Amino acid sequence: GDTYYKSYTEVAFGEATPLGELLDRWFRDIEGTLKKQTLSMFRLSFRLLGEFLITVRHSSQKDGTEFIRTTMIESLRRRDVSGFSEWLAQERKLNAKTIGCRISPLKSFWD
User: Fold this and answer.
1) Mind listing the pLDDT tens digit of every residue in the chain (111 residues)?
2) At CA 107, angle to CA 35 and CA 99, rounded to 5?
3) Which of 9, 20, 45, 70 is the most exposed place for a label (fewest CB within 10 A)?
4) What is the pTM of this model?
5) Kindly report the CA angle at 2 between 58 and 53, in degrees rounded to 5?
6) Which residues on neighbouring strands pair with residue 18, listed in sequence order?
7) Strand-pair partners of 72
């Protein structure tokens, strides 16, 4: 109740921005310049980031995509995402090259 109300009012008054709105705009901007397969990989990167944040924040949410879309960009801190690459290696059993591929779209988004 209270958390939803706080989030709603922050968005309504322009004090917080759901990451989903920014992602939609960013994907629209890059859509014509990348292949569908590349865009799918980019979406996967954000879903995995959402899944990581679910574990870090001990959320009951199950859907990584929905979680990252509803996360307020202002709430993301370096310490929140600093363990992402390690999580990909340990929990997802990805190799260094694949981890780099998963992180690359995130860097592009935030540049």
Assistant:
1) 555 444 444 444 456 799 999 999 999 999 999 999 999 999 999 999 999 999 999 999 999 999 999 999 988 988 878 899 999 999 999 999 999 999 999 999 988
2) 80
3) 9
4) 0.85
5) 20
6) 72
7) 18
**Nearest one of 40, 61, 109 to 81, comparing CA atoms:** 109
Cβ neighbours, 10 Å, residue 40? 11
Rounded distance between C-alpha atoms, residue 77 and residue 79, angstroms:
5
Q: State the number of CA atoms in the 13 A half-sphere of 49 facing the CB.
A: 28
69: nearest Cα among 53, 58, 80, 82 = 53
Residue 105: count of CB within 10 angstroms of its CB: 21
77-99 residues labelled b (16+ CB within 10 A) or e (exposed): eeeebeebbebbeeeeebeeeeb
Q: Which distant-in-sequence residues (6+ apart) come within 8 Å of 26 by Cβ? A: 109
